[in-house]
């Protein structure tokens, strides 16, 4: 299980997120369960029951100078599993 949470999110907004976007899903596209994200609203947490998540960022390389990008964090583990200790890599 993987949970992705966004701390900040500011990707150039466009009609149907056609210019800049972040694609997030449990498997590589084209998959219907993938989410295309843009704009400045912080998306809700994304939870995948699988052991991997596919993340793809696209930019049309134009800059309006306004969008700041995004920052995300993830937690990997099974439901009910205790967090890793500071000296553990996998737990």
From TrEMBL:
Organism domain of life: Eukaryota
Key words of the record: Disulfide bond, Repeat
Domain CUB intervals: 1-77
The protein's name: LRP3 isoform 1
InterPro entries with a match to the protein in the record: CUB_dom, Sperma_CUB_dom_sf
Keyword Repeat assigned: yes
Coiled-coil ranges per UniProt: none
Pfam families in alphabetical order: CUB
């Amino acid at each position: 299980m993987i949970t992705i949470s966004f701390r900040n999110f500011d990707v150039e907004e466009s009609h149907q997120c056609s210019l800049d976007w972040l694609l997030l899903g449990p498997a590589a596209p084209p998959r219907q369960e993938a989410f295309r994200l843009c704009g400045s609203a912080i998306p809700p947490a994304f939870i995948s029951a699988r052991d991997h998540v596919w993340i793809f960022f696209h930019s049309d390389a134009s800059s309006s100078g306004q969008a700041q990008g995004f920052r995300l964090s993830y937690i990997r583990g099974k439901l009910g599993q205790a967090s890793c200790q500071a000296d553990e890599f996998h737990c």
